[in-house]
Design a protein that fits this description.
The complex is a heterodimer of chains A (421) and B (307). Chain A has 421 residues and is mostly helical. Chain A has helices at 22-48, 51-86, 99-123, 128-133, 136-140, 146-178, 183-210, 214-241, 316-320, 323-330, 346-360, 362-365, 385-407; strands at residues 244-253, 299-310. In chain A, strands 1-2 form a two-stranded antiparallel ribbon. Chain B is 36% helix and 27% strand. The chains are: A mainly alpha (421), B alpha/beta (307).
Chain lengths: 421, 307
């Protein structure tokens, strides 16, 4: 059998898998993408023709419509009360951002929540479902590479999830328009939602290749999503409890200030960030505190001593993996330290500010840490979401790598209880 | 590459955990012939075919398909092998034509070429009328034919069929037989696994018997060793007995719906001579034919069924 390689055509002699020149490499990449796209087309045809998918889309559309309407009605009712109340108060009606930011935030949160519920179901049977049907082995026996099969299935699952986002987008646009928010706002939030759905789809698709049965991979994908959404909060909570330490600080003094009635530091996150933003929209209706412009309204006196503090910056990376936080933190908002109301506006900003305070740690948030007064409004321009998204991508990437190994043929090892065909 | 056509594999072994599906198999198949792979359930037929289709790596042994090793020249092997699994594997929402075109693309056929080939194959397996039906509405037999067409989409030189006849009605089986003979006549190496032995007699040029993960016997169908058993029916079996005794033929009485005598004949020439002598000797012969299929006889003679 040693003569086998002599019968190869001369052109085929150098291994075709290692293209030398840049041009050849580009051609190989294009061929790879074309093959993966063929898988996407196959999957899309399969999905688009199932009636269940359209029924789910219709239910989804109706659900988001109801949520949007309810949010608007709730705001309307609140607003009516405060308007009536305002007639009897000398201050007049409260300055309000209008319903827009509130409706947008509520709808965005719901869309994201439901999308995270739907997308595991759309992705986590992509590979093992096909294995059960006997169609996976046909793909594996063709000239497709394992990576192409996996990528095609991932993209198809992602597209299916994006369809839900597209169906929800009219309501997000309504929310943005009603509140006079900028179009950039919705562009960023939709983009980040799409990216998060991609992460969940990747996790689902990878798990479906690793697990023998669809039921198992779907449940595990849900658990991973729950871990990211809720588990990160719990883990961060425990992490905070375990990261007690000290920070060098002296004492704030308000003696020389003209507004002694308003103790500045009580507004600054002193022991750690305010994490769970109390149902955010209420911040629009809160009584506005006395304006505090410019530098902090206190001075730092006394000698520096070690004061107990919580080093949230050590565990903030756990928090950063939260999909809601990644989206909220990525949405841009203005620096409000120069504003007449130096506090975050709405739930999205509050979440972002809270998380950024956590990553900044007690050095930045404890009043008079290192003897320097801290502004009431934390200016932390370094965003948190790239870290969170990076960690999510690392998780998804690791799972996808394992999934690719599971699809390599000729197969050496098979998962227990599975058959090639 | 005309010099090393066909399948040659030696000493194949493959186990799944504690289960030794294939222990020691040698399997050869000639180009232009139909080779039957025969054995009881669990003998390792499907595992062998998966290894030949480059889906499973053998634990030990070598495989050459037209001279290519699946472990090394995977793409060369895949371009040459068409594989039809026993699970069929159809995409239910796609139409018959779409499945063929789509799979053609996975073998890097151009769009037009894939469409043209799909049309040809739909005609070949008589599914032209169902080209635009979703695969879900096709009967099992139709799905089986579609699966065969799918395995042929990239003009393979080697066709591996796992139980292609199961679930087919008699007419479809006859048709499958014809199709496979035509494919083999075009120079393709055709491997058919089955346990319906009478089926294989009609189409197989060679048979490989496997049992318990081992090759038990390989043989060419046309030359059965030790002759074939023939059965004789006549209006008067008594005169037939007398004449056979005179000619020195050892015979036995067969139990069956109709009384018949059976005896072993070494070659086809011997059979023809014996029949002539019986007729000229005045025996009113009503039937004179092989008692069973060659493959069936060999199979039963091997005692391969380990129940």
């Amino acid at each position: 059998m040693s003569g086998v390689h002599e019968v190869l055509e001369p052109g085929a002699a150098p291994s075709p898998r290692r293209p030398r020149s840049v041009g050849e490499r580009a051609t190989a990449v294009r061929a790879w993408v074309r093959g993966a796209w063929d898988v996407v087309v196959l999957e899309a045809k399969q999905r688009l023709r199932s009636r269940g998918w359209y029924i789910m889309l219709a239910i989804w559309f109706a659900l988001i419509a109801i949520v949007t309407w309810l949010t608007w009605a709730a705001w309307e009712a609140q607003h009516a009360v405060s308007r009536r109340y305002a007639d009897y108060t000398p201050a007049g009606p409260l300055p309000s951002a209008g319903p827009g930011s509130m409706i947008f935030e509520a709808v965005l949160a719901f869309v994201m929540f439901f999308a995270l519920v739907v997308s595991p179901a759309l992705s986590a049977n992509a590979v093992n479902g096909d294995r059960a049907q006997g169609t996976l082995a046909i793909l594996q026996a063709s000239l497709l590479r394992p990576g192409q099969i996996l990528a095609g299935k991932l993209v198809a699952a992602w597209f299916a999830a994006l369809a839900f986002l597209v169906a929800a987008s009219p309501f997000l646009i309504i929310g943005v328009a009603a509140g006079g928010l900028s179009p950039g706002y919705i562009a960023v939030s939709l983009l980040m939602l799409a990216v998060e759905l991609g992460v969940v789809s990747a996790i689902g698709t990878a798990l479906s290749a690793l697990a023998g049965r669809p039921l198992f991979s779907i449940v595990v994908t849900y658990l991973v999503v729950a871990m990211l959404c809720i588990g990160t909060l719990i883990a961060f909570g425990f992490g905070v409890a375990l990261s007690r330490g000290t920070v060098e600080a002296n004492s704030p003094s308000y003696a020389t200030l003209s507004h002694p009635a308003v103790p500045g530091p009580s507004f600054a996150p002193s022991t750690g960030p305010s994490l769970a933003p109390s149902p955010g929209y209420s911040s629009n209706l809160k009584v506005t505190p006395a304006p505090m412009q410019g530098p902090p309204s206190y001075t730092c006196v006394g000698s520096l001593i070690d004061q107990p503090a919580v080093h949230t910056e050590r565990v903030a990376w756990i928090l950063s993996m939260n999909p809601f936080l990644v989206v909220a933190d990525a949405i841009p908002y203005p620096d409000r330290s120069e504003s007449s109301v130096p506090y975050p506006q709405g739930a999205i900003e509050t979440m972002s500010q809270g998380a950024r305070a956590a990553i900044a740690g007690p050095e930045a948030t404890t009043p008079c840490a290192n003897g320097k007064p801290k502004p009431a409004y934390l200016v932390q321009r370094t965003p948190l979401w790239p870290l969170g998204l990076g960690l999510q991508l690392l998780l998804a990437g690791g799972l996808l790598w394992g999934a690719r190994q599971a699809l390599v043929t000729p197969a050496r090892r098979l998962a227990r209880g599975t058959r090639v065909a | 590459m005309g010099d090393v056509r066909g399948i040659a594999s030696r000493g194949l072994a493959r186990s799944f955990g504690a289960v030794h599906a294939v222990v020691g198999m040698d399997f050869d198949a000639q180009a232009g012939q139909v080779t039957a792979l025969v054995g009881p359930n669990g003998a390792g037929k499907t595992t062998l075919l998966l290894m030949l289709a480059s889906l499973l790596a053998p634990d030990a042994g070598t495989i050459r398909i037209d001279g290519f090793d699946p472990a090394v020249d995977r793409d060369d092997v895949r371009r040459r092998v068409g594989w039809m699994p026993d699970t069929l594997g159809v995409w239910e929402s796609l139409t018959a034509r779409e499945i063929l075109v789509q799979v053609g693309r996975f073998y890097r056929l151009g769009g037009q070429e894939a469409a043209k080939r799909a049309g040809e194959l739909l005609d070949l397996v008589h599914l032209g009328d169902f080209a635009h039906q979703p695969a879900r509405v096709l009967s099992r037999g139709q799905q089986q034919r579609l699966s065969l067409a799918r395995a042929l989409i990239h003009r393979p030189t080697t066709l591996l069929l796992d139980e292609p006849a199961s679930g087919l009605d008699p007419a479809s089986r006859v048709e499958l037989r014809g199709t496979l003979r035509r494919v083999a006549a075009d120079g393709c190496t055709v491997v058919v696994s089955s346990h319906i032995l009478s089926e294989l007699d009609e189409i197989a040029d060679a048979v490989v018997f496997v049992s318990g993960g081992r090759t038990v016997r390989s043989q060419v169908v046309d030359a059965p060793p030790g002759g074939r058993r023939y059965a004789l029916e006549a209006l008067d079996l008594g005169s037939a007995r007398a004449l056979l005794g005179e000619l020195g033929v050892e015979f036995g009485d067969e139990d069956g719906r109709r009384p018949r005598l059976s005896f072993v004949v070494a070659t086809d020439d011997d059979a023809a001579r014996l029949l002539r002598e019986l007729v000229t000797g005045g025996v009113a012969v009503t039937a004179f034919a092989p008692a069973g299929g060659v493959i069936e006889e060999t199979y039963l003679g091997l005692g391969a069924d380990e129940r």
